[in-house]
Amino acid sequence: EAGVAQSPRYKIIEKRQSVAFWCNPISGHATLYWYQQILGQGPKLLIQFQNNGVVDDSQLPKDRFSAERLKGVDSTLKIQPAKLEDSAVYLCASSSLRGGKGNTIYFGEGSWLTVV
Amino acid sequence: DAKTTQPPSMDCAEGRAANLPCNHSTISGNEYVYWYRQIHSQGPQYIIHGLKNNETNEMASLIITEDRKSSTLILPHATLRDTAVYYCIVRVALGGTSYGKLTFGQGTILTVHP
Fold first, then answer.
1. DSSP A47-113
2. Measured between CB atoms, does B50 come within 8 Å of chain A?
3. Phi and psi for A52 in degrees, rounded to 5?
4. Nearest alpha-carbon partner for B78 in B86, B69, B70, B87
5. What letter would DSSP give residue B13?
6. How far is A16 from chain B (nearest CA, A)?
7. Å from B15 to nearest chain A CA?
8. Is B104's Cβ below 8 Å from some Cβ in A?
9. Cβ-Cβ contacts under 8 Å, B106 against chain A
10. pLDDT in tens, chain B (114 residues)
11. H/E element, A44
């Protein structure tokens, strides 16, 4: 079974530039998450989708971050304009709506962003 | 969600059992204990989860105390590749097939040495 796919793996941009990250969840997974992980810290949830609707975006800095999941499958996370403090790993994760172990959340390898 | 407390770091000799403790004294009856680990430069990897009974899978065992206020993740025969940050997370079951989010803390850095 293919895992959660993310791209690009690494990105370096200058502050005030924009960047976009793409995520393809595990096939059939209705729920998709974007996490931000700053070096030395645990991942922090930015936004959660169920199908193409937003369930939780309470920690998404909406003045500069946006995310969409138009057809309920792939998702894009955009940062515009980027700040130095946005340097982090952006993790995409997905889970199904089935109960028990079917609700386990699986993570991708992450997209490493450095803002200079 | 209930908070968890883990030691910041632990060491273990290769081939020995690694026992990682977690305190979750404010856990509620509908909250599960999840364990994930994160190896350097990779995304978090699911290990195991449980509600109140002990659980075992091919990766590890999870021992939850009877009062559910603490748990221990056991890696029975640690290898160098088990060196990682281990996260203990409490996750609420909202009803049906709906669960709350995973809220990560700082985790425990486990170092397995030869």
1. EEEETTEEEE-TTS-TTTEEEE-TTSS-EEEEESS--GGG-EEEEEEEE-S-SGGGG--EE---EEE
2. no
3. -110, 15
4. B86
5. E
6. 26
7. 28
8. yes
9. 41-42
10. 568 999 999 999 999 999 999 999 999 988 999 999 999 989 999 999 999 989 999 999 999 999 999 999 999 999 999 999 999 999 888 777 677 888 899 999 999 999
11. strand A44-50
Cα torsion at B59, B64, B70, B73 (round to 10°)? -10
Contact criterion met (CB < 8 Å) for B46 and A43 = no
Task: Tell me, yes or no, if B39 comes closer than 8 A to chain A by beta carbon.
Answer: no
Contacts of A82 (CB under 8 A, 6+ apart): A13, A14, A15, A16, A17, A18, A19, A64, A113, A115
Provide mean pLDDT across the span A18-26: 97
pLDDT band for position A33 (cuts 50, 70, 90): very high
Which whole-number Å values give the CA distances from A3 to B35, B73, B81, in the listed order? 19, 25, 20
Per residue in A48-87, pLDDT (tens digit) is 998 889 999 999 999 999 999 988 899 999 999 999 999 9
Asked if A91 and B43 come within 8 Å (Cβ–Cβ), the reply is: yes
A56:B101 CB<8 A: yes
User: Whole-angstrom Cα distance, residue A32 to residue A14?
Assistant: 28
Three-state SS for B82?
A: helix
Centroid of chain to Cα A76: 7
Q: Report phi then psi at A28, rounded to 5.
A: 90, -5
Q: Which residues of chain B lie closer than 8 angstroms to A48, CB-CB?
A: 101
CA distance A105 to B99: 10
Chain A contact for B43, CB < 8 A?
yes
